[in-house]
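Bumping with the actual sequence this time:
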Amino acid sequence: MHIAIAGNIGAGKTTLTEMLSKHYGWEPHFEDVLKNPYLDDFYERMERWSFNLQIYFLNSRFNQMLECSKKEKDTIQDRTIYEDAFIFAPNLQAMGLMTNRDYENYKSIFNTLNSFVKDPDLLIYLRSGIPNLVDQIHKRGRDYENTISIEYLSRLNERYEAWIQSYDKSNLLVIEVDDIDFVKDPDDFNVITKLIDEKLKS
C-alpha cells in the first residue's frame, strides 16, 4: 500500500509523514531538501533556476514512486509527483518565472514519466491557511525560505484547492490543520489516525 501526503509549503507534510510512519510501521520517503542543489539558487533567482529545480524534483519523486510500487511493505511519501506538475510548475509559468518553452518541455517530460507510475492508494491533503503556513515556515527557520512571499504562498494555495477539487486518482482524505496541533496534542493525532483507518477500510 502506498500513502502520499500533499500540501503547501509549511503545512506539516514531513512531520506528519514521520509520525505516521512510526505509528503504522510504514516505510517513509521524504522530499529531497537537504541534498537539493538548486533550492538556495531558486529562492534567490526564481526565473533563472525554476526549470532546473522542477526537473530535479520531478526526477526525485518519480524515482520515489517507482520504489514505492516495488516495495513489498507499506510506504508513505512526503509530497507527490502531481504537485510538481499541477501546482508548482504551472504557477511558475503563470508568474513569468518559467518560460513557455521550458514549461512545455517540462509537461512533456512529466507526461512520459507519469505513464510509468502507479497512483497512491490514499492521498492525504493537509489544508492550511496562509497565516498558519507563514508561522510554520518561520518556526522551522530554513534560510532559503526567508524570501518566500505571501503572494507566492497564496497562489500555490489557490492551485492546491483547484487540484484537490478535481482529484480522482485514488482515495482522498482532506485534513484541516489550522486549528489542530498533531505534534503536541496526542488527541489531535489520534483524530487523524482514526480518519486514516476509516479511509483505508473503505
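The C-alpha cells above came from a reply further down the thread. DSSP finds eight helices and five strands in the chain.
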